[in-house]
C-alpha cells in the first residue's frame, strides 16, 4: 500500500470535506424551527394521537391566533426522533405531542416553555387534577398540557363467571373484588370451577397495582422508595406473587400468546385502561357481547394518556398555546373521542359534547359511562424520570413465573439491579 | 451502532485502497493526475466521514460520559467500562450471542453446503429452486417474526401441536432459556441457509469438472467425491462464509428484537449484545453505556477477526500453492 499517496489522498480529502461541511453548515445550520414560514407552526404527533378533522381546521388557521398549523405525523421511535432534534438544537417542532412517558423530559425542562407563563394555570381547573399533575415537573413548572387519559377497570367475561357460579353483573363483581385479596379469592374459585385464568401474567398485576397507587418507585426528589419497608412496589410485588401462586395468572409472558389466551377463553379477565376495549375487540371479535367491565380492587388507576408540549424554540408560543388549549376544549375532546377514541382529560367533555360510545361489545353496558364515572377517582401520583431504571422488578416477576425462580431471591435481585443502574446514572 | 456497519464498511474500503495503489508506478502527484477519479469515488468517503467515521469517533467520546441524549454530559472516566465488566446482564448477553451463533452457524453452513451440492447436480427446476432457497433472505423480518412466533407459540403453536400429536412433551419455545435460543437460531438458519448456499454454488461452479471425472474414474462414490473433492476445493469459500456468519452472528439483533421485543424475552434468554446495546441507548437513553457496550463488542469482534485471519494464514502456509487456483 503506498503510504505517501494515501496520506496525500487523505489530505486532499480532508480539504474537500472541510469545504463541503462549511458550505452545508452555513446553508442550513441556523434554523431551529422546521418551517421557515413565520406564519406556520409545525406540530409533531403520531398517528391517532390527534383528531384529523381538528388538525384540518387548524391548518387553515389556529383559532385565537393569526398562525396556521402544519401537522407532521412522526412514525416509529417518536421519542428518539424528538430527543434528537432537541439535542441537536435544529428542526425542532413548534408544538409536539408527548406520550405518557413525559417524565423522561423532566431533567431537560429548560428545553420547554413553562406553560404557566402562557396562562396555563387558568385552565388547570378544567382537567382532572391527577392528569394535570403528571405534566408538572418536580420543580413545579407546567411542561405538559393534558391531552387524553387512560383510567383503568377490571375487564371480565360475564358468561364464564356466570357458568362458574360467580357474580357476573358489573355491580356485583365490583362488590366482590373490593380489595386485592377478594380479587385473588375470586380468581382461585374461577380456577377451581372453570379452570381459566383471571389475568395473563403476574407482571400485569404488578403494573396495574402501581398504576392505581399514589406511591410509585420514587418520591418527588427522585429518591427510590421501592426498597423501603411497606413500599407500594413491595406491596404490588406481594400481590402479584400471591396471584401467581394461587394459579390465577395464565403465566403467559409472550404477547402473541396473551392475545390467543383472551380469544380462546383461557384467560377471562384483564385490568387495563379504557383504550384496551378497542384492542380487545380487534383481538377477540368472537367473544363480543360476553365481556363486561367492573371496578378493579381499590381505586382505579391510569395507564397511558398523552400530553402536548411547547419547545422553548417555538417561534410563537402564544399561538402554540392557543392551539393546544383550543384542541383540548371539552367540546373538542369529545369530538376527538368520537373520531379516534381518545378518552378525555377534561371532565366537562362528558357533558359538553355528544360523546358517542361504541357499544355492543360489552352487551348492555356502556364502557364510556363506566370510565367517565371512575376517572375522577384516579389517585394523583408521581412518575419519575428514572422509572425505566427500575424495570428489573417486572423482569424478575417474569422469571418467577416462567422459570420458577424463588420470589425472595428475585426481589433481592431486582432491588440490586435497580440500585446498580441508579448508582451508575448518579441518582443515588 | 458502529459494529453494525462493520460488514458494510469492509468491502468498499478495501476496493478503494487498492485503487490508490495503482497510480504508484507513474510519475507526478497522483492527486493531481487522477483528480476526476478521486472526485468520482469521493461521495462514498464524504458520506462515510459524516455518517460512519464521525459517529464512530463520537461513540468513543460518549463512552466516557454519562448522557441521557438531551441534557448536559457528565464526564465519568472509565466508569462505564467498569460497570460493564461487572454487569451480569452484559455477560449474559455475550453468552447468549455465542450460544445462538454456535447453534445457528454450524447447522446452517452444513445445510447450505449440502443444498449447494444438490443444486449443482443435474436436476429439474434448478432455477426455480435456487430462487426459492434464496427467498427467505429477502422476506420482511417483521412478517417472519410473526409467523415464527405463531409456529413456536408455547400453547397455540404448530410445533407444539405436532409434538403433542406424536405424544412427545411440549416445549415452551418462547418462554424458556433454550427454547428461545433454539427459536432464534432456527430463524437465522431459515433466513441465511439459502444465501450461503448460493455463495457455495458459485464456488462449486469454479471447481474444474475434470477433477470430478478423475475421481469417478478412480471409482469414488458421491459421498467420497463430496468429501475429498468438493469440500477441499471449496475451503476458501467456506472460510469466507464462516467469517461473514461470525460478523452476522456477533451483531445479531433483528431476530430477537422482532420476536421477543426490546427486553430479550423471559430471563433475557434472547438478549444479544447488540440488542442490549440498543436497549440501554434507545429505550433507557443511557448513551454512555450504550457506547461502551458497542466498543466491548468491537473488541470481541476484533479478537475473532484475528483468529479468523490466523486460521486462513496458517492453512495457506501449509498448502498454499494448490489452493490459490480455487480462490482466484
TrEMBL record, chain B:
It comes from the Bacteria. It is a multi-pass membrane protein. It comes from Beutenbergia cavernae (strain ATCC BAA-8 / DSM 12333 / CCUG 43141 / JCM 11478 / NBRC 16432 / NCIMB 13614 / HKI 0122). InterPro entries: ABC_transporter_permease, MetI-like, MetI-like_sf. One of its GO terms (biological process) is transmembrane transport. Gene3D superfamilies: MetI-like. It is found in: Cell membrane. This is Binding-protein-dependent transport systems inner membrane component. Keywords: Cell membrane, Membrane, Transmembrane, Transmembrane helix, Transport. Residues 94-308 form the ABC transmembrane type-1 domain. The keyword Membrane applies. Belongs to the binding-protein-dependent transport system permease family. GO terms for cellular component: plasma membrane. The chain crosses the membrane at residues 38-58, 98-119, 131-153, 233-253, 292-312. CDD domains: TM_PBP2 (cd06261). Pfam families: BPD_transp_1.
Amino acid at each position: 500500500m503506498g503510504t505517501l499517496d494515501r496520506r496525500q489522498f487523505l489530505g486532499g480529502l480532508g480539504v474537500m470535506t472541510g469545504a463541503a461541511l462549511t458550505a452545508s453548515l452555513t446553508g442550513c445550520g441556523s434554523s431551529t424551527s422546521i418551517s421557515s414560514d413565520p406564519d406556520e407552526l409545525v406540530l409533531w404527533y403520531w398517528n391517532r394521537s390527534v383528531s384529523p378533522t381538528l388538525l384540518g381546521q387548524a391548518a387553515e388557521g389556529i383559532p385565537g391566533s393569526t398562525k396556521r398549523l402544519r401537522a407532521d405525523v412522526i412514525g416509529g421511535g417518536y421519542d428518539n426522533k424528538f430527543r434528537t432534534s432537541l439535542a441537536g438544537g435544529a428542526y425542532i417542532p413548534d408544538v409536539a405531542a408527548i406520550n405518557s412517558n413525559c417524565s423522561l423530559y423532566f431533567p431537560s425542562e429548560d428545553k420547554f416553555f413553562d406553560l404557566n407563563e402562557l396562562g396555563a394555570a387558568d385552565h388547570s381547573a378544567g382537567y382532572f387534577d391527577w392528569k394535570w399533575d403528571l405534566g408538572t415537573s418536580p420543580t413545579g413548572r407546567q411542561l405538559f398540557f393534558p391531552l387524553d387519559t387512560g383510567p383503568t377497570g377490571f375487564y371480565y367475561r360475564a358468561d364464564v363467571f356466570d357458568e362458574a357460579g360467580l357474580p357476573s353483573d358489573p355491580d356485583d363483581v365490583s362488590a366482590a373484588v373490593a380489595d386485592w385479596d377478594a380479587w385473588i379469592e375470586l380468581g382461585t374459585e374461577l380456577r377451581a370451577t372453570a379452570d381459566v385464568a383471571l389475568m395473563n401474567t403476574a407482571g400485569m398485576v404488578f403494573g396495574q397495582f402501581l398504576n392505581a397507587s399514589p406511591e410509585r418507585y420514587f418520591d418527588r426528589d427522585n429518591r427510590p422508595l421501592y426498597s423501603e419497608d411497606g413500599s407500594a412496589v413491595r406491596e404490588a410485588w406481594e400481590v402479584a406473587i400471591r396471584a401467581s401462586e394461587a394459579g390465577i395468572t395464565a403465566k403467559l409472558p409472550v404477547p402473541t400468546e396473551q392475545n390467543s389466551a383472551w380469544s380462546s377463553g383461557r384467560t377471562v379477565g384483564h385490568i387495563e385502561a379504557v383504550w384496551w376495549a378497542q384492542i380487545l375487540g380487534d383481538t377477540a371479535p368472537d367473544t363480543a357481547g360476553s365481556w363486561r367491565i367492573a371496578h378493579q380492587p381499590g381505586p382505579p388507576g391510569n395507564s397511558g394518556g398523552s400530553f402536548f408540549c411547547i419547545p422553548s424554540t417555538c417561534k410563537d408560543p402564544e399561538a402554540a398555546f392557543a392551539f393546544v388549549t383550543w384542541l383540548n376544549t371539552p367540546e373538542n375532546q369529545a369530538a376527538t373521542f368520537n373520531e379516534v377514541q381518545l378518552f378525555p382529560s377534561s371532565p366537562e367533555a362528558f357533558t359538553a359534547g355528544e360523546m358517542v360510545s361504541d357499544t355492543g361489545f360489552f352487551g348492555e353496558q356502556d364502557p364510556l359511562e363506566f370510565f367517565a364515572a371512575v376517572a375522577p377517582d384516579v389517585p394523583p401520583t408521581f412518575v419519575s424520570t428514572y422509572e425505566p431504571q427500575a424495570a428489573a422488578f417486572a423482569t424478575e416477576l417474569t422469571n418467577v413465573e416462567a422459570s420458577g425462580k424463588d420470589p425472595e431471591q428475585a426481589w433481592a435481585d431486582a432491588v440490586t439491579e435497580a440500585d446498580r443502574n441508579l448508582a451508575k446514572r448518579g441518582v443515588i | 451502532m458502529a459494529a453494525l456497519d462493520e460488514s458494510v464498511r469492509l468491502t468498499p474500503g478495501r476496493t478503494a485502497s487498492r485503487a490508490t495503489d495503482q497510480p504508484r508506478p507513474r510519475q507526478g502527484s497522483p492527486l493531481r493526475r487522477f483528480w476526476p477519479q478521486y472526485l468520482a469515488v469521493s461521495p462514498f468517503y464524504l458520506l462515510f466521514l459524516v455518517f460512519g467515521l464521525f459517529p464512530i469517533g463520537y461513540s468513543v467520546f460518549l463512552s466516557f460520559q454519562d448522557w441521557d441524549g438531551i441534557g448536559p454530559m457528565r464526564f465519568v472516566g472509565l466508569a462505564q467500562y467498569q460497570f460493564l465488566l461487572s454487569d451480569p446482564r452484559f455477560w449474559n448477553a455475550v453468552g447468549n450471542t455465542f450460544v445462538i451463533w454456535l447453534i445457528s452457524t454450524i447447522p446452517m453452513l452444513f445445510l447450505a453446503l449440502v443444498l449447494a451440492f444438490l443444486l449443482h447436480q443435474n436436476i429439474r427446476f434448478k432455477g426455480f429452486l435456487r430462487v426459492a432457497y434464496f427467498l427467505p433472505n429477502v422476506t420482511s423480518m417483521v412478517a417472519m417474526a410473526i409467523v415464527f412466533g405463531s409456529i413456536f407459540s408455547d400453547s397455540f403453536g404448530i410445533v407444539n401441536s405436532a409434538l403433542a400429536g406424536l405424544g412427545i412433551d411440549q416445549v415452551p419455545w418462547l418462554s424458556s432459556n433454550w427454547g428461545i435460543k433454539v427459536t432464534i437460531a432456527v430463524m437465522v438458519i431459515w433466513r441465511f441457509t439459502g444465501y450461503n448456499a448460493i455463495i457455495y454454488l458459485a464456488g462449486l461452479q469454479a471447481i474444474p469438472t475434470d477433477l470430478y471425472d478423475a475421481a469417478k474414474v478412480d471409482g469414488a462414490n458421491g459421498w467420497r467425491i463430496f468429501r475429498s473433492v468438493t469440500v477441499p476445493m471449496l475451503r476458501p469459500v467456506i472460510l469466507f462464509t464462516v467469517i461473514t456468519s461470525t460478523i452476522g452472528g456477533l451483531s445479531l439483533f433483528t431476530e430477537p428484537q422482532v420476536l421477543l421485543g426490546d427486553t430479550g424475552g423471559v430471563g433475557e434468554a434472547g438478549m444479544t449484545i447488540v440488542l442490549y446495546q440498543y436497549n440501554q441507548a434507545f429505550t433507557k437513553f443511557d448513551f454512555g453505556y450504550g457506547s461502551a457496550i458497542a466498543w466491548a463488542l468491537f473488541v470481541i469482534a476484533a479478537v475473532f477477526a484475528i483468529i479468523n485471519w490466523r486460521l486462513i494464514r496458517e492453512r495457506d502456509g501449509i498448502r498454499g500453492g494448490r489452493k490459490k487456483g480455487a480462490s482466484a
